[in-house]
Design a protein that fits this description.
By secondary structure, the protein is mostly helical. Helix content is about 80%, strand content about 0%. Helix 1 runs parallel beside helix 3 and helix 1 (about 1-25) packs antiparallel against helix 4.
């Protein structure tokens, strides 16, 4: 019987880390804060939380660029689209169970030390 409990506990922890990683990516900056407070010691969750933070920063940059007349009106929709696609990709990767870098932002997220 103890093996079954251990197996269930391991599965629960695996599901728990996937859930928190997904929440960190799905809820963006709020998810990052939740992950930082609740699961700071979990490497998997923080891996995706950092990527979520970088995606949020790219979104904020797109919003600031949108203020610039003409150039911002052209560039910001492209940045918004790229940000949205990266956001969706991060969801899929977070639920996948392995640490996969989200394209473009993954290398920047690695440089964040928390």
């Amino acid at each position: 019987m103890p093996k079954k409990k251990t197996k269930k506990t391991k599965l629960k922890k695996e599901d728990d880390k996937k859930l928190f990683a997904f929440l960190a990516t799905f809820l963006s900056i709020v998810g990052f804060i939740i992950a930082l407070v609740a699961k700071k010691d979990n490497k998997y969750v923080m891996f995706y939380a950092k990527q979520s933070l970088v995606i949020f920063i790219v979104y904020v940059v797109a919003a600031v660029v949108a203020i610039i007349p003409l150039i911002g009106w052209i560039v910001s929709p492209i940045l918004y689209l790229i940000t949205f696609v990266l956001w969706i990709i991060s969801w899929v990767y977070a639920l996948g169970g392995e640490e996969k870098e989200t394209p473009i932002v993954g290398k920047y997220a690695k440089s964040i030390n928390l």
